[in-house]
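Final report, Chapter 2: Outcomes

The project's central promise was a pipeline that accepts a single protein chain and returns its three-dimensional structure in a standardized token representation, suitable for archiving and comparison. That pipeline is now operational. To close this chapter, we reproduce one record exactly as it appears in the project archive, with the input sequence first and the structure output second.
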Amino acid sequence: MILNSIYVDNLIKTALLEDINYLDTTTDYLIDEEQENSARFLAKDDGVLCGIEVALRVFEILQPNGVKATVYKHDGDKLKKGDIIAELHGKTRTILKGERTALNLIQHMSGVASATNKAVEIVKGTKASIADTRKTLPGLRPLQKYAVTVGGGKNHRYNLSDAAMLKDIHVEAGGGIENAAAKLRKKLGHMTKIELEVRNLSELRQALDAKVDVIMLDNMSPELMKQAVEITDGRALLEASGGITDETLREIAETGVDIISMGALTHSVKAFDISLKITD
């Protein structure tokens, strides 16, 4: 996934306007306008870096063509506690005003990437891939989904327009599995897939009869998932979802499912600890 620079700039400007109403009372009254300093981003934990270019862009927007940066670690690199990620030099007011916005972005993105990479490592050696969901923070979806790919995961549909996904409420409103799938298929283009959420093996068999492309096994036990894999026998992709944690991840992956989607990668991830310190 590639981040759109227009989106990134607009997001940063919104964040800066939220943080700086008309002045930075501390910085603007304390620091001379022409004072310059250097600063460095420092990793304070082990994990996967994501968002360094986004973080540096904060300072470039505040001081166009006036900030110099040297990047030592790039998105996707494994970090060790104490690693210097990047150094920058510019007006001191710029560094102080942009610090919190830059850290908010890089810490959150690195948190998502690190959590994703941990999940990817847990399922290593199985056929299962790790995917995100639409359980993202409003306005941050592009950053979060980008961070998932940086951590080695894959993106589920980006939004409601990407694919047809029949959940239980859609099936109930659409007249049952067979009717809902058939009605969708008549209207969808040949490039658009249908995914169907099932809660038991009876619904799984109905989904297979309806010839949907992907079947989501919602909150099933590993035992039921194994049976679902045997029954499906490659006729559709199987996605495990619902309440999955790092503790249950390996057992679920070993059932033979193709995809494991985890909302926790984006909606409740812990920020990765990174600091920005003046160095001169």
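Archive annotation: The mean pLDDT is 97.
This record, like all others produced under the grant, will remain available to the consortium after the project formally closes.
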